[in-house]
Design a protein that fits this description.
340 residues, mainly alpha, MetI-like fold, 2 domains
């Protein structure tokens, strides 16, 4: 005989009433907005100032470059690309472009090589390294006008210090008459001021390289030069790109040194050291033609942009990536410095 037990139906839980919607108070909403928008407010002063003193002058210069600007009425007449055509057809522009690139190459290449070499020396365990690191920055804090005046007198044709020393050897160099030697003198001023600055930037990047890489390379038999080319240079790739780009911008905008190289400040009697910025200054403040000066400024901006992009591409191609350095170091060096 089977007994059947019937369970009572499960009691159904009555639906709970809807929970009341929580209303955020004004202080909670303010705290939420503060969390979301505060970072943008903190960085907004920079972008506001940059828009006022940076973007607006650039855009306004572009507008003026297409006009024949009247200084009396403080307005211009639209003339299209006539100002650009005048600049490109002027032989002084091509002379200034040649001089600018010549001084830039003569100054930038030795400057970066010397900065890299000095930074490698200061990165080693030497005595009084703090003193030497501070000393390389002393020329940078000097006023560029003072540097130009000192070096301009040192490279004087008749009574300069350099020619006075070379006279004992029967040598006299026309520092202010020759195109090449005037570029050498101006490039010397630039290297004197900026080598220490680039040295400290490269030194800071070198000190960030883990020392384990060098220890592993030393165990594998790599000498100091091999470690420098296989570890230091690849690790400095981002810093080298930054230094090369900034040197390019500064080198193509060089003004103080050629301006103060002689008493006239016009780039030489035969435009031996006339640069683009000197030519721009002459057009804008010598001839009071702001339209042509604005057009030349934009041409210089485009030249710097193109050369900067080329330098970026070349630097990325020549300097290997720093990724995976810790794995490559042990494999790259064999015993006694030979590659496996």
């Amino acid at each position: 005989m089977t007994a059947t037990v019937t369970l009572p139906p499960a009691s159904q839980t009555p639906p709970s009433p809807d929970r009341p919607v929580r209303v955020l108070s004004f202080s909670h909403r303010l705290s939420k907005w503060d969390f979301k928008f505060s970072p943008y407010l903190y960085i907004s002063p920079f972008f506001i100032l940059f828009a006022i003193v940076g973007l607006f002058p650039i855009a306004y210069t572009a507008v003026i470059s297409f006009q024949d600007w009247d200084l009396i009425r403080n307005k211009g007449t639209f003339i299209g690309f006539d100002q650009y055509a005048w600049i490109l057809s002027n032989p002084h522009f091509w002379t200034a472009l040649r001089n600018t690139f010549s001084i830039f190459l003569i100054s930038a290449v030795p400057q970066l090589i010397a900065a890299l070499f000095i930074a490698a020396l200061l990165d080693r365990n030497i005595r009084n390294k703090t003193f030497w690191r501070m000393s390389v920055l002393v020329p940078f804090v000097m006023a560029p006008v003072a540097v130009a005046l000192i070096f301009g007198n040192m490279f004087g044709d008749n009574h300069g210090f350099v020619n006075g020393v070379l006279a004992n050897l029967g040598i006299s160099i026309p520092w202010h008459k020759s195109v090449f030697w005037s570029h050498i003198a101006i490039a010397t001023m630039v290297n004197f001021r900026w080598t220490g600055y680039n040295t400290l930037i490269l030194l800071a990047a070198m000190q960030a390289i883990p020392r384990d890489y060098y220890e592993a390379a030393t165990v594998d038999g790599a000498n100091a030069f091999r470690q420098f080319t296989a570890i230091t240079i690849p690790s400095l790739r981002p810093t080298l790109i930054f230094v090369i780009i900034t040197s390019t911008i500064g080198g193509l905008q060089i003004f103080d040194e050629p301006r103060m190289y002689d008493t006239t400040g016009e780039g030489g009697p035969a435009q031996q050291w006339l640069t683009i910025t000197l030519f721009l200054y002459k057009i804008g403040w010598g001839e009071w033609n702001f339209g042509r000066a604005a057009a030349l400024a934009w041409i210089l901006f485009l030249i710097i942009l193109v050369i900067g992009l080329v330098n970026l591409a070349v630097t990325r191609g020549l300097v290997r990536d720093e990724g995976g350095r810790g794995v490559v170091v042990r494999r790259r060096f064999g015993r006694k410095g030979s590659q496996r």
